[in-house]
Structure prediction request, 195 residues.
Amino acid sequence: MPRNVTVTGVERTFGDDDIIVSKTNLKGHITYANDVFLKIADYKEKEVLGQPHSLIRHPHMPRCVFKLLWQTVEAGQEIFAYVINRTKHGDHYWVYAHVTPSRDTSGRIIGYHSNRRVPDRKILEDQIMPLYRELLREEASHGDRNAGMLAGEQMMMDLLAREGVAYDEYVATLGKPHLRASRDGQAPLPREQAI
Prediction:
């Protein structure tokens, strides 16, 4: 698989009514990809099944956001996130992802399910892209990758504390601050409530 493909800087898009769907096992290996996924990412089904979902990870995606995503779904909760993905040939596409754990009849988590839609362009350009650039800059400023990821995570937690919201409320109300619960005059959320 072409994991070391150079990025082209070319952005791809998909239809507003299209939904990219994929499923993985507990280790993040792809067990299902729909036709929209395969078309936008330039892969054939046989090329992605069994491969790690990081196959489409773009190097401009902050690692700390993926850390939060995996922590959340492994804890049995859903998460929404803006994600930049990479195609097989190095182009990229932005998505608004909803990732949930998949459970068996006893409630045990057996994998993960992700639906991705076209993100709001204004939110991307005004808020997500600048935030991700700052997170990437912070992550890259540390010689150690793990230290960089932790520093990026701390930057995200500091942002949530300043905004006075948990991550899920922050993402759900981007571009819609009037929907946020008023926390004026209240102490910042403790870390365990911010994620």
